[in-house]
Design goal:
Helix content: 25-40%
Structural class: alpha/beta
Strand order of the largest sheet: 3-2-1-14-15-16
CATH architecture of the largest domain: Alpha-Beta Complex
CATH topology of the largest domain: inorganic pyrophosphatase (n-terminal core)
Shape: elongated
Radius of gyration: 36 Å
Largest sheet: 6 strands, parallel
Distance between the termini: 54 Å
Length: 549
């Protein structure tokens, strides 16, 4: 599919906060109004309660979650080969293969993959020498009619063919009476005496060749004895050759241990499997196990990288897994420049404001696209959240001006709405320590060290105090689980405009003391610190660099 027509995901950082989710939704909306309806907001993890409150308040659906943006089978132009029914004949399957120029056909029943039939399977069917195999294979009269271009004179096309052997009546009745048994399928020329002999001996099916009409007497006898009669224009040689092709593919197809791939499988993970097995084609299933198409190694050469617009981050450590494989089209952010690299020039907008949503609102104004109540509400929620209702040192006049314009459109009182949103987001008593830490958690590379910093904001200092010990106990395991050298956790009191900083990891306490003063009982209280980006990270970074000297 042409890149201009493919879906573009607008997505924020891992452990999404209100700004990253709301900015993704609002920017996708703006892009759709300007460039066509192919931009989709996504989120890179579970949303926190504060963000959930904002989305519910303005009646906006939560974006789907994406954990990995690496190239998947769904990004490959695999063949949408139509699956066949297990009851169709080998001859019909062969004709479909020739028409579609494929060597493998998927077989499905009720949208589920039942098996695969290959040219080799069809070739192997000709090696079967059991002349009773038509019945064993479950061959229907309809399949025989279609395969030999036959016309049904007596019988039901839906019934299975008789249990006897397949034979050609080439000799006279005096000899045939020694060979024809009850239930046999007898292929013959239109010789009255041979037909009569076969009926009297209990043949289950008579196939009369060369298209000569069947007499009324033979038809009546066949009806009375339950014998199927078919006529065909072909001669006995052609019919005996074709009839084996009337067997259903289900009898010969591969049913067990079929190697399939899912649409969400990573391409780099399936390549080894494809190389080892060397099959020409592999079935593709969706997440529900429904058949979707067939994939070959050649198809992988045309895999499309996912097209991504990043909002509220520009560091690889904060991005979805697999971002190295994606095609980044744009970045909108208000943080420091990180280590993100792109293969070609892109649109990059980074401004020193308190919130990405402020940048996006400015873009709405620049292109003169009206902001409706829902979009205004989400943009305003993001600004309130990231600036702690303008208390954060990262807040600028641009953030305040944007919120002042958006609040009337959203129909909210800034102070009251902020109180309700922060209160909803700070109900920590029933949450696990892991969920609390990842409410708003980001990873940073500071030289050779990798640190993680989580932050929660609360209107109540008592609520923060109630979870202090639980978080202290959890942080060491959090550092180990995430493969980090140090973990810091900011418990920020919105009303008091201060933060109690907890930490874990080798050297974390020394860096905290060098940056913020005396550490007491495994934490340090930092008056006036409410911003991770502008206050906490720069101070810790400076302390760490001085400790290394």
């Amino acid at each position: 599919m042409d890149n201009e027509m493919r879906e573009v995901w607008v997505i924020g950082h891992k452990n999404p906060d209100t700004d990253s989710v709301c900015s993704a939704i609002c920017y996708a909306n703006l892009k759709n109004k300007l460039e066509g309806n192919r931009f989709v907001a996504k989120k890179a993890g579970k949303i926190n309660r504060e963000t959930e409150f904002a989305l519910n308040y303005f009646g906006v659906e939560e974006p789907d979650t994406v954990y990995n943006v690496g190239t998947q089978v769904s990004d490959v132009d695999y063949r949408r080969t139509e699956a066949i029914n297990p009851d169709i004949s080998l001859k019909k399957a062969w004709e479909i293969m020739k028409e579609k120029q494929v060597v493998t056909l998927p077989v499905q029943r009720k949208k589920k993959l039942a098996g695969v039939i290959t040219i080799q399977d069809i070739a192997n069917s000709y090696m079967e020498v059991d002349n009773t195999i038509l019945h064993l294979a479950g061959t229907t009269v309809r399949n025989i009619l279609e395969t030999i271009d036959g016309k049904l004179i007596v019988g039901d096309a839906k019934q299975l063919c008789p249990e006897g052997k397949v034979m050609v009546a080439a000799a006279g009745p005096d000899i045939e009476e020694n060979y024809i048994k009850k239930g046999d399928i007898v292929i013959m020329a239109n010789r009255y005496e041979t037909q009569l002999c076969a009926l009297e001996l209990g043949a289950g099916m008579i196939i009369s060749c060369l298209g000569v009409p069947i007499s009324a007497t033979i038809k009546k006898m066949a009806e009375d004895r339950g014998c199927i009669i078919i006529t065909t224009r072909h001669d006995t040689y052609m019919v005996s050759r074709l009839i084996a092709q009337s067997m259903p593919v289900e009898y010969f197809m591969t049913k067990d241990n079929i190697v399939c791939f899912r649409t969400d499988d990573a391409v780099d993970e399936i390549q080894d499997t494809m190389a080892k097995l060397r099959h020409r084609d592999f079935p593709v299933l969706d997440s529900h196990g429904n058949y979707m198409g067939m994939l070959s190694r050649r198809n992988l050469m045309g895999a499309h990288r996912k097209q991504i617009i990043l909002v509220d981050h520009n560091e690889l450590s904060q991005a979805c897994d697999g971002m190295e494989q994606a095609r980044i089209l744009e970045i909108l952010d208000h943080h420091r420049l990180g280590n993100m690299q792109t293969s070609s020039p892109i649109y990059f907008r980074n401004q020193p404001v308190g919130c990405t949503a402020t940048i996006i609102f400015r873009m709405y104004e620049e292109v003169k696209v009206p902001v409706d109540r829902k979009i205004a509400g989400l943009l305003c929620s993001a600004i309130i959240s990231d600036t702690l209702l303008f208390r954060s040192p990262t807040c600028t006049d641009h953030d305040r001006a944007a919120a002042a314009k958006l609040a009337p459109i959203a129909g909210i009182n800034l102070e009251k709405y902020a109180h309700d949103m922060f209160t909803a987001g700070s109900e920590f008593s029933q949450m696990s320590a892991e969920d609390i830490l990842h409410q708003d958690f980001k990873e940073f590379a500071l030289g050779e060290l990798h640190i993680g910093v989580g932050q929660i904001n609360s209107m109540s200092k008592d609520e923060l105090g109630a979870i202090r010990e639980k978080m202290k106990r959890y942080l060491p395991s959090a550092a180990k689980k995430n493969g980090l050298d140090m973990v810091y956790f900011m418990m920020t009191s919105i009303m008091d405009e201060d933060t109690e900083l907890l930490f874990a990891g080798n050297g974390a306490a020394a860096a905290a003391e060098a940056a913020f003063g005396t550490v007491t009982d495994g934490s340090v209280l930092v008056p006036g610190m409410v911003s991770r980006k502008k206050q906490m990270i720069p101070a810790i970074s400076k302390a760490l660099s001085e400790m290394v000297r």
